[in-house]
Every structure is written in structure tokens, then in C-alpha cells.
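user: At home tonight, take the chain set out below, taking as long as you need, and be ready to discuss the fold:
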Amino acid sequence: MKVEKVTVSVPAATLATLERLQRRLGKTRSALVSEALAEWLRIQDVPDADRRYAEAYLRQPEPVGDSEATAAGAVAEWGRWE
């Protein structure tokens, strides 16, 4: 994989957190920043329909009772585990 160098500025607190994680995980600063950026880009690349669904769900989540009923129905036919 071809890599390119970039220079970015980050708040001091962000850099301090990055360096703590770097020591704990035993990875280079470049590896951690690259992984974080790749994950952020992946999340941003969600199709519009999926994004609208997630945003609507956050505004009006499914009532707790509905999900409990769905789970109960899904396991109703299961036999006893022994």
C-alpha cells in the first residue's frame, strides 16, 4: 500500500490521549491516526437511506416493550437447554 505523509494540528489534550494509547497498544502514532481516520471515513460513507433510518430511530426509538415482545416471539419455539 502506498502511503503519503501529511501534517495536521490537533489539540494538546488529543495528542496526549493519542500518546497514552500509543504506549498502551504498542503501535506507532501514524498507525493509530491512520486507523482512526480510516474508521471515521468508513462511518461517514453510510448510504443516505441508512443514515436517515438511523437518525429517525435516534429521534424516536422503538418502545422497549416492542423489542421484548419480538425477542420473546423469536425464542418461544426453542426447546429447553440442558
